[in-house]
Specification:
alpha/beta, Rossmann fold, four-stranded antiparallel sheet
């Protein structure tokens, strides 16, 4: 039988809830954002004056056909790219005004990333892949025992206890994506960005991964933002932003009472 959350985790959860009491507060604001890319002697206008807000703790789908601009917007929110015009605010900080060092800290402390190609380190096992982002934070005051307890908790949450010592080459696609989800949550980010997380999975495995991410969203209060074609993700999203040709054609948020 799976044991319940440890005392250390419950302390973490209490701190998370304290930070997220004002659930209606916008954690992300995108204001009149344009993105243009040079293409030979012309340019591609990938995003055209897009504005929206994302509420803390929501499960968001940014949907649309290929070339609609959804991955571009995810990259702008993740500070992988910068707007040609307009602004992106994360927790009231305009990302365009940040130095490279400040962006690195923001991405490490506030943002987590899940990629469709998993991007696991082949020579590390499950535990080590999940631990890796924590080892990059030289300023962390978290002791080794606390770190181990947290990683063990994440491994239990994604159902990989029996695979903790296995390397990515010994795992299925669904198992690799579970590792990627746990790794994205390792630094306890307020926001997780997922770029087509089910694209390389069969439909049954994709559904299992969606259910797992929704559970993590509910249990931890983490904001999940997806760039996706997957209608299963769209159908259970709290907030759907649908794009076509770089413009928002639908911006719908389901109002509901949420308990943490």
């Amino acid at each position: 039988m799976e044991s319940g959350p440890s005392s250390e985790y419950l302390h973490i959860r209490k701190n998370m809830n304290t930070r997220r009491k004002e659930h209606t507060m916008a954690i992300i604001r995108v204001q009149d954002v344009h993105k243009r890319y040079p293409l030979g002697k012309t340019e591609v206008h990938a995003v055209k004056g897009v504005s929206f807000e994302i509420t803390r703790g929501d499960f968001i789908s940014i949907a649309g056909p290929s070339g609609s601009g959804k991955s571009t917007i995810l990259n702008l929110i993740g500070c992988i790219d910068t707007p040609s015009e307009g602004s992106v605010h994360i927790e009231e900080t305009e990302t365009g005004s940040l130095s490279d060092d400040a962006i690195t800290r923001l991405r490490h402390q506030v943002l987590g990333f899940i990629f469709q190609s998993f991007n696991l380190i082949p020579v590390l096992d499950v535990y080590e892949n999940i631990e890796f982002p924590l080892l990059l934070d030289k300023k962390s005051r978290e002791g080794g025992s606390e770190r181990r307890e947290w990683i063990d908790y994440l491994i239990r949450m994604v159902g990989l206890e029996e695979w903790r010592d296995h390397r990515p080459g010994e795992l299925s696609g669904g198992q690799r994506q579970r590792v990627a989800i746990a790794r994205a949550l390792a630094t306890r980010p307020g926001i997780v960005l997922a770029d087509e997380p089910t694209a390389n999975l069969d439909s049954a495995t994709g559904e299992e991964i969606i259910i797992l991410m929704k559970k993590m969203n509910k249990d931890l209060g983490t904001t999940f933002i997806f760039s996706t074609h997957d209608q299963n993700i769209v159908s259970i999203a709290d907030h759907v932003i649908r794009l076509k040709d770089g413009l928002i054609v639908e911006n719908r948020r389901e109002e509901k009472v949420r308990t943490l």
